[in-house]
Sequence to fold (155 residues):
Amino acid sequence: DLYYRLKGVLIELPPLRERRDDIPLLASYFLEKVRTELGIEVTEITRDGIDLLMDYPWPGNIRELENVIKSAAVHAGAGGRISREILLTLIGDTRGTEVKKLKAELEDIEKKRILRVLEEVGWNKSRAARILGLSRQGLILKIKKYGLTSTAVRQ
Fold:
């Protein structure tokens, strides 16, 4: 009977990754729970630790957050603080990976665009720089950075 009553009620709760503002409060709650259940007196989660928790995508949702806080508290030990470094050993730095991936993609786009413009203007660096909105020296630095070459380089 209870099953059928509950089945008639639909509760939609968005995933944790869509409720990032809840993460500091939930992390504090789980830390207090760990203190009570395990008797570990971890003092706090550092600000950079909270930032890392908020940047993590949480594929395992709230249970994963609870387990990470519990493991981090054990690593920190009595009187310790849960720092970014401790959390990195447990969940890694996904933010850095995404930023590096985005930077590499943007550099690849920039490299291809510069090469295409240089080829269009016969490697005339002054004209290419004007088209690209760069100084001539800035363009030369980017050519060196990306290792761009042409068999018929014209000044």
Q: What stands out?
A: The chain has a mean pLDDT of 86.
